[in-house]
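Entry 12.
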Amino acid sequence: MNRRLALLTGTHATNDLYQGLVPALLPLMALERGYSYTAISGLMLAATGLSSVVQPLFGLYADRHPRGWLIPLGFLVAAIGIALAGMSTSYIATWCAIALSGLGIAAYHPPATVAARLAGGGSGKAMSIFSVGGTLGASFAPLLATSLVGGGALSRSYWLAVPALAMGLVWWLAALRRARQVQTVHSARAVPRATAPNDWPAFGLLVAVIVGWSIPYVTVLSMLSMYIGHNLGGTAFQGAAALTAFTASAALGTLCGGWLGDAFGRMRTIRLGYLAAVPMLGALLIAPTAMAALICTSLLGVAMFIPFANQVTLAQDYLPRNPAMASGITLGLALSVGGLVSPLFGMMSDSRGLRFTLACVLAVLCVSTVLALRMRNRLPVEPVMEDGLAPV
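Predicted 3D structure (tokens):
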């Protein structure tokens, strides 16, 4: 792995740590502040609602005006939002702080994703390495939240900003090193513009598939700990462990997906992931014990993330003239639909129970799987962007 891709992978881990801290903090907020399922789902809406609208706009801006500073600014703003959410005393202030964190995450993803593909030469393995940085960062979020702000200590959430400050220092030192190496040449190098047109119908189908993926993903992510505790009689530690297993196994699935995509084709890999995820979510639904749910959750994380890196590169190839916007829509707008509808599933959980909610999102995943079987591949084309996003 080259130095540029390594740095971008590290920033992705830092950024998605704060994305993962939102669902990790929700059970703690419910316990310490008495939030209902509906209130908790509203916080998930705060984390994803604004981000879903703004992230494609950041992508469009990055396509036209590449700016490397969007990457560190994104994860630093995300860290500030999470720290403020823990220290806030009212629900409205908490909601606004989490929305601010989502805005930072929105700013980060489009430019960083395109920069990672350029750094990796367009291979699926490189994109999977970059993606797994994010899933690994998110996997540490539950344990970090429990150890630093658990047990009624949400007011100490300012400690959660330390990883972002450390990565910001690393980015700044890398920028200084780059400036010393290249004193007379601007860091942005022109990349030839793509000549192939954007394929909007194919991209629209991919967005529909990802929307159907995001609803069960966000629902499981936000409700898993409470499902383990309330429905299966598990402890708080078992709930946190299941959430960690879900996000950590997603890292394995992402790496496997990148390798399988390069070896056997990304369309076969995408379909394999969806076909495997359906029975795993069904198994979680009927799991009799917390330990069984932990096993099912681990397998579900692997299956759901096998298509992940391949879907990102496929989106960029569907829109070769706007790769950052494609990343913003697929990683922002489409993925955030799960957060946008989460209040509905929260109210459903309040009235019908968590098991019924999981059954509903299983049906959504089945529809997404059917749509995934209809997608077609597109050969990679040169991205429309200047390579001026990372200072290494």
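Annotation: The chain has one domain: 3-372. DSSP finds 15 helices and no strands in the chain.
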